[in-house]
Amino acid sequence: MLEVHHLNNSRSQRVLWLLEELGVDYRIVRYARDAQTMLAPPELKAVHPLGKSPVVKEGDTVLAESGAIVEHLIERYGQGRFAPSRQSDAYVQYRYWLHYAEGSLMTQMIARLYLGRVGDGGKPMIERIERSIASHLAFVESQVGDAQFFLGGSLTGADIQMSFPLEWAKTQGFLGAYPKLTALVDRYHARPAYRAGVEKGGPYLFGS
């Protein structure tokens, strides 16, 4: 059976959501962040050398990186769901969002998180990063527009992958000026599969 090595309050929650949408049987192996450092426990390094989550194990295959996991699971179990045809123009946009989520948007969020721990010396850079976050969120909102999901009327892996940085932005108060993104996150959270993933994964800071 497929195993998800799941760290609380982490990107692995979106993998649980996807598996619930796909209807795939899986087993959760749980890990808890250190209460002081908020880092993953060292036991995760026995699963993958980087000691990060999510990690999915399927037979002899060990796969890290949530974007790669989302692509793999949809290709293996999607049966034509949750991704457009590779020959379509929509697939170009689909792949873009899969990479943009971590390659562009989440890097801004992580920079803001760490700069916030520096103290007064980090304030000039915090202002710069927050302007960059605002620019990115305005861009994303303009691309979503009035659509229900990133690629129109149907949920895809692009939504799964983009959910975590948008959830993080919401909990940090960055989505106040972006009602369409706020509504999008609310639509994610209303899905039965999303709620089932949170129920199985345990308390999730970003899921409300």
Describe the structure concisely.
The protein is of the alpha+beta class and 208 residues long. The protein is 52% helix and 10% strand.
Overview of the molecule:
The chain is α+β, with helices and mostly antiparallel strands and about 210 residues long. It has 2 domains: about 1-80 and about 195-200, Glutaredoxin (3-Layer(aba) Sandwich); about 90-190, Glutathione S-transferase Yfyf (Class Pi), Chain A, domain 2. About 50% of the residues lie in helices and about 10% in strands. The chain contains 7 helices and 4 strands; from the N terminus they run E-H-E-E-E-H-H-H-H-H-H. Strand 3 and strand 4 form a beta hairpin. The longest helix is centred in the middle third of the chain and has 27 residues, at about 90-115. It is globular and about 50 Å long. The relative contact order is 0.15. The mean pLDDT is about 95.
